[in-house]
Amino acid sequence: METARGQYRTLCAELTLLRKKSAEDFAVKLKAELRELNFPQVDFQVRILSGEEYAGADGCDSLRFYISMNPGEKPRPLDEIAGSSDPLHYTSSADCSDGRRAFAHRKGNRGR
């Protein structure tokens, strides 16, 4: 049993590193796209929380998207500010579903 746990932790650590790299690339690309849509001051961040408390079949991470559309505004969690009528809601959903499974939200939003 201990060997399986060790392997799981090793795989989780590898997945976390991949997610961090992908998160940086994703944030840069999404900001560029939003600037093209006339959001010149956008700030977008992917925050990754890692640890045993987030352990599951898809790793030991919880991801959260933060955004600020205005200069001087502190980035806030996207899921708290984007409503179904907000164009950004659709944009972020489309970008997240293009094969970037590392960014899938977990059920229950354990990242809060």
> Radius of gyration, Cα only, in angstroms?
15 Å
Task: Briefly note the structural class of the backbone.
Answer: alpha+beta
Which shape, going by the Cα principal axes? elongated
Q: Give, in order, the helices and strands.
A: HEEEHH
List segments where confidence is low: pLDDT < 50 over at least 5 consecutive residues: 89-112
Description:
The protein has 112 residues and is α+β, with helices and mostly antiparallel strands. It is 44% helix and 16% strand. It has helices at 2-36, 78-81, 87-96, and strands at 43-50, 61-68, 76-77. It has a three-stranded antiparallel β-sheet. The longest helix is centred in the N-terminal third of the chain and has 35 residues, at 2-36. Mean pLDDT is 79; it is low at 89-112.
List keywords for this structure.
alpha+beta; 112 residues; 3-stranded antiparallel sheet; 3 helices; single chain
How would you summarize the topology of this molecule?
Elements: H1 2-36, E1 43-50, E2 61-68, E3 76-77, H2 78-81, H3 87-96
Antiparallel strand pairs: 1-2, 2-3
